[in-house]
Amino acid sequence: MNRKLNQFVAMLQAALGLLLSISFAIFLFVLFFEPFPLDGFALNNGILFVAAMGAIAFVIMSLVRITLPWLIKKYDQHQFDPLLPPYANSFLIYVLTFVSFTFYIRYVGSIDLSISIMFKMGLLSLAPPVSLWLHDLIKDLKKQNKSLRKEIELAQGKVEQYEEDYLSKAIEFISDSSTETFSLLMTDVAFVKSADNYVEIVYREGDTMKSKLIRNTLKNIELQLKTHPNFIRCHRTCIVNMHHVEKLNKDINTYWLTIKSYSEHIPVSRQYLLKLKESI
Fold first, then answer.
1. Confidence at residue 165, expressed as pLDDT on a 0 to 100 scale
2. CB within 8 A of 44, min separation 6: which ones?
3. CATH superfamily, region 169-279
4. Cα separations in angstroms, 157 against 16, 105, 107, 136
5. Nearest Cα residue to 32 out of 19, 47, 20
6. In this structure, are strands 181-185 and 170-174 parallel, antiparallel, or unpaired?
7. Is 235 exposed, middle or buried (0-12, 13-18, 19+ CB in 10 A)?
8. Are 237 and 226 in contact (CB under 8 A)?
9. Neighbour-count burial of 175, counting CB atoms closer than 10 A to its CB (0-12 exposed, 13-18 middle, 19+ buried)
10. What stretches of 37-85 show up as alpha helix (H) in DSSP?
């Protein structure tokens, strides 16, 4: 029982500042703008009368936002969803506030009701639900923003981990007879192209591009690079490292790639164009 009571007190404390702020705003609005005549009240009585309207709004908001959900959770342990959807919650607050304000100014304040006063009461009664709706909206947006930031940080961590693995991972190119090997960091390999009975591996060493011939077929090299998704076949004669691609170019029906700090154009055939565009 004490635990339930403590939960209720915690909920009340969390919402107390917001509900009091809205109630105080209603008090100030009625006091300064006088949507209905207060001539029949002495100064102190008029202030007390208006303050009671703020108190009415506070009680209604507390009942709908705090007390009812707490009672539902108390007597139904399996009730995890809100008692009412947000729009119904706002509508209930509006109706209770409008009815309470109307009866209060008529039977407590002895103020004659008119269409103008009823209209003003209707507008005034919108203040609590609209304020709460805006508060909830901003709160939800902040939660979404926080969640998105966490997702972005997680994604950035994965990207950084991938880049770290990528920069440190080496690729070993093996000749078809397995008598010759050539090892390079993955990040240094720009592209591999066929050259008769050999493949030419073009790679970066410092600020310059160099090449190495190994006796093998491009098909075998493609199998060796199969586990590295950044290497894409762009032509029957060439496999390119997408991290070195600067731009995909087009001239009428011809496509080619430009490699960073490399003057030679890499041909692109239509057979591999779609997958290449997806990678870019």
1. 66
2. none
3. LytTr DNA-binding domain (2.40.50.1020)
4. 40, 61, 65, 31
5. 47
6. antiparallel
7. buried
8. no
9. middle
10. 43-62, 68-75
Phi and psi (nearest 5°) for 131? -65, -45
pLDDT of residue 253 exceeding 90, the answer is no
Q: What share of the chain is helix, strand, coil (3-state, %, to 5)?
A: 60, 20, 20
Per residue in 150-159, pLDDT (tens digit) is 999 888 887 7
> How far are the Cα atoms of 60, 65, 67 from residue 5, in angstroms, in the given order?
20, 16, 11
Mean pLDDT of the 225-231 span: 86
Q: What is the pLDDT of residues 90-104, one digit of tens each?
A: 899 999 999 999 999
Per-domain residue ranges for the chain?
Answer: 2-155, 169-279
Distance CA 144, CA 227 (A): 36
Written as one letter, the residue type at 108 is V
Among candidate residues 78, 74, 57, the one with its CA nearest the CA of residue 7: 74
Contact 187, 203 (CB under 8 A): no
Q: Which residues contact 4 (CB under 8 A, 6 or more apart)?
A: 70, 74
Residue-level length of the chain: 280
Report the alpha-carbon distance of residue 230 to residue 186 in Å, rounded. Answer: 9
pTM of structure = 0.56
* Residue at 8: amino acid letter: F
